[in-house]
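Lay summary. Proteins are chains of building blocks that fold into shapes, and those shapes determine what they do. In this project we predict the shape from the chain. Here is one chain we studied, written as its sequence of building blocks.
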Amino acid sequence: MDMNPDTTHDGLRGGYPPWRQRQRPAARPMLSGDMRCDVLIVGAGITGSFMAEHLSALGHRTCVLDRERPGLGSTAASTAMLLWEIDASLTELTQFYGFERAAGIYRHSLRAVAGLKKLVEACALPCGFHARTSVYLAKAGADPRELLAEHELRQRADLPGAYLDHRRLLSKFSVSREAALVSPGSAEVDPVLLSQALLARADTQGASVFAGEAVSYETAGRGVLVGLDNGHAIEAGKVVLATGYVMPDWLDMPLHTISSTWAIATPAQAPGTLWRDCALLWEAGEDYTYARTTTDNRIVIGGEDDASLTDQSARDDAMPAKTAVLLDRLAGLWPAALARADFQWSGAFGETRDGLPLIGPVPGRPNMFAAYGYGGNGITFSYMASRMIGRMMAGKNESWFQDLAVDRPMPTRS
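And here is the predicted shape, written in a compact code that computers can read:
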């Protein structure tokens, strides 16, 4: 087998995130002939990595295919805040689907972060994982009663957390906003190290990672014949599409849209100048800012999402202006910060109209599964997708899986 040279990130992200300074993955071989496997995972980012680790642990002969070096595409652009709270608030999700369904989805998201934590600890994955509290801040100038109503709905759903008014928020976290919801159960991680650790574990379980691009998918007997860009093919019993926002032309998902986000990382902050508990900070509202710390005491802050700038060159052109806005927002959020950008980067990502992922069988394509549309819950939903699809392959479907179905109808507010 020939060894594939390093590839670029092909417009998946721009700039230089701090995670790239860590560990570079080994080169992957290219297929020099046709092959067979039980499961082919297309995409070796964080979703494909979770899939490879879990499905190989279940005993499937698993192959992973990616045109990029594992973990250095969209995964490297992640700010890796493992929130169980979803982009759509419980209030919004209740308006779409009713309280019982919405509350159930939130509880499954909470359990996903707990399951991910258990996996990291049980397998001693070296990935900078730290359990964190999340602080969901009222948008500047917003009516705090909206956040209080969200808190009361969460209490009804038996979700953890407390409501802090302006005075208590300022006292506990030194953040000046009208109100906040403070909740346990979230986490942070180095996304590149996590992806690499999962693939390394999958390798010990018999999984194989190859370089290459899937260019065709054909139903073949009880499986799928996947044609590669080098002329060879993989015959797989099942195929999982885990390619971020880059998906086949024939995959129709009306709920799915593409947007871009920008982020910066500061220099290491002076001892004693970071906020309490290094909590994950994020804002209510559609156009929100989010912030976390790193193991080397940097502050990572991101936001400024824009659905009109998905081309890499356009994102790169916008980088100076977006960086300036993020630095200004950091100064307003945490005046004690050394507000300078040591790293600045951007990335495109998939999201959905209702803030929920698209996970499950591909309509009209037997033996094919998809995992897309993660928005701000990328790593949380990646873990969730691996467990859901693992159960689907075993014929153990659960009723709530339909809430995240690839072909679920367009949501309407009640």
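What the prediction tells us: Helices lie at 46-57, 90-97, 99-123, 144-156, 166-173, 191-204, 312-333, 378-393.
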